[in-house]
Write a structure and sequence with these properties.
Length: about 350
Amino acid sequence: MSIHGYRDRRIPILLGLVLLIAPLVTPGPATAEIPAPAAAAADSPVGEQLDWLLGQLNSEVENFGPIRVSEHFAPEYLDALPTTDLIAIVRDLAESLAPVALARFEGLSQADAAVAIVTTDTIDDWRITIGVESNAPHRITALFLTPVPYPSELANPPERWSDLDTDLKNLASRASFLAAEIVDGQCDTIHGLNEDAPLAIGSSFKLYVLGELADQIARGDADWDEPLPIQDTLRSLPSGDMRLDPAGTVYPLLIYARQMIAASDNTATDHLIDRLGRENIEAELRAMGHAAPERNVPLLATREWFAFKVKIGVLATLGYLDADVPGRRAFLTEEVDPAAETLQESDTFSWVTPRRIDTIE
């Protein structure tokens, strides 16, 4: 895999397949530490390896040879990416990107895993995803580098809000936009265009699942380390890879939450919805300030959402939408959930246009 660099070169990226070498956790009874704040990653084993890597890219790449590689990279990593190839890639990156400097860490970090943004000598910043062995000597087990995409500047930027409104209306048949400012803890509108129109938010709904999980942990009704097994009846479609885990594989709630947010994992999401309670998450929408929580009652699991998209006919869907809440809940149990159990990824192959965006979604 390669990516075109700003110096008109082909800049190789360390192969993403090596990320598969380090599983999330070992199947079986599982525990996990609550991740530290991202800033703490700098003083952790993964931070030390990242610091070493940046040093190689900046000034020590000529000394980046087989001995250093074997000291800092795990054997299973080098099984996937041979030492000679790794050396060539790192030297090419050093020539193309240096000097590099750590700008910040992204998201949650652990002692053995982090995502860092670095500034480079190219136009773009770069994102480094890195993982290390849990135990000493904490060699690198996962490494992935990619440019951070930033919006390009407009040739003719709008000078007034009305100009922006016109541009948005010309861009799409329907457009919504809101500019706001946080003042004394309040969100004050500066300008809006159809800002009150209800829209499908896709995977953003997972933030409400995360909110309910956080509330239950705060109340003592759940725990980050609480083990939860994979169930076939809660297996969903991509995105996310937890759908590939055998039934009975056990992960702590922390891992389900991380995969739900970091990878938008639908199977992780449905397991959390089942564990937390559908109606509890429906109440969380209101508690978190959703403008129209009633539109999401019943809250659909992702596998039910997929079933509506590819399995449930139009007339049956209209009947569901016309039903009251008890009727909808019964329909999910009697019709949608059995259909969801038959879902195959091939069912989505013909799904190339939006479906039921203004209703089911």
